[in-house]
Amino acid sequence: MTVKLIRGGTIVTASDTYRADLLLRDGRIAAIGVGLPAEGAEVVDAAGLYVMPGGVDPHTHLDMPFGGTVTADDFETGTRAAAFGGTTTVIDFCLTNKGRPLSEAVAQWHAKSEEKAVIDYGFHLMISEITDEVLEELPRIIEEEGITSLKVFMAYKNVFQADDGTLYRTLLSAREHGALVMVHAENGDVIDYLIREALEAGNTDPIYHAKTRPSVIEGEATGRAVKLTALAGSQLYVVHVTCEEAVRQIAEGRSRGLDIWGETCPQYLVLDETDLERPDFQGAKYVWSPPLREKSHQSALWNALKSGELQTLGSDHCSFNFKGQKELGRGDFSRIPNGGPTIEDRFSILYSEGVAKGRITLNQFVDIVSTRSAKLFGLFPRKGTVAVGSDADLVLFDPAARRVVSAELHHMNVDYNPFEGMELTGLPVSVLSRGEFVVRDRVFTGVPGRGQYLKRARYGAELTHGNAGSPAAGTTQPLLQG
Ligand code: URP
Ligand code: ZN
Ligand code: ZN
Ligand code: ZN
Prior knowledge:
Domain Amidohydrolase-related: 50-437
Low-confidence stretches: 465-482
Radius of gyration: 21 Å
CATH architecture of the largest domain: Alpha-Beta Barrel
Cofactor: Zn(2+)
CATH topology of the largest domain: TIM Barrel
Strand order of the largest sheet: 8-11-12-13-14-15-16-17
Keywords: Hydrolase, Metal-binding
Mean pLDDT: 95
Bound molecules: N-(aminocarbonyl)-beta-alanine, zinc ion
Helix content: 25-40%
Largest sheet: 8 strands, parallel
Protein name: D-hydantoinase
Distance between the termini: 42 Å
GO molecular function, one term: hydrolase activity, acting on carbon-nitrogen (but not peptide) bonds, in cyclic amides
Oligomer: single chain
């Protein structure tokens, strides 16, 4: 692999902004300094550009069966689009099946990703029931696969939903084995009732997806998960937080010193409930769970990112075509596949709406879009920063460039873009993964299958550069746990 010198850019991390050159060797950052000599390296001119750590997207659903269909992006199209958007690591949700070995599901997710991923990736593991077999297998999966985060759904009754006993026992097991429990926090039982009530009343349009999942129910489930976490003495990460009620529960738990973390998504920051009322069934494109909220919740989310009550931004990329997939729910909103294509625009929306509009600082941006997820999910400092010894996963970002989002130009394998027409400031011009260009001057130069599977360190373990890919070999010094 050629040695590269990234010259003249402005390096931005979660804590610092400064002018320096970067020397990249063997896929890693070998040196940082002002006026580094080229010495045979390929020189890349970064004048006028920010040089940032590649985005770490902690929440994707690639090649996932859901809602009677399968997501439109697989690990090839999804990670290629991610790279175009400035993301160099994704952590995808591995679905498990009740009564089947966890290892079977993990093997299936390896098979989906291995020859396709363009950038590096890891897995979270879904837990839908706790049995003797699961309790026996779980420590091995955490250890051998480096899957150090477990996902429990408190919604999607009769599909993914787990009961509170399962959540509680997962929290206990996670505390014992050093994993982070992630929850989709909505009350699935109440939602199930509200959906049936709406359909019986003839309310079948997409907007009723939002009306049957009120924010109070997200707040209730979030508060329940926080309390169970306190009882278990464990750690919790709440995915896709959409509303003020949920933010308040997370903030309240954190103010009591609990190990609680919260993620929001770009769609909740810039879209709102009225998008579900778009005519000609177009509202189906805006069906997410939890749903888009009234516009007033957006400022609660921005404030929480600014103040640190929410720490990360996941895309929750879960793409379905409008034609043939979203359309499955014509005449019955409950059959609209939930989710949308967001992997490509997550990074730029946070920059444009956050930094360019003065809502968050440039260093906060890097923390939210990359560093914090790398830390929480056992990848730091291999991923999530610009430092000597870290992987050379870099975005060369032009803060002055402007673009208009459109499905015509995006790289996701889907026939619409929920942010269509949005004008964004800032553009990831080139993107490197482990020192190789995967996007160069907006042209794709990556190769499917080059992406590596990431074994992640246990929750709270401090990593050194040598062991970031190998939790088994790592030290487990508490860093995050209080
Ligand atoms: O609507 C959504 N969020 N779809 C993806 C699955 C999930 O709940 O994260
Ligand atoms: Zn969810
Ligand atoms: Zn999701
Ligand atoms: Zn270091």
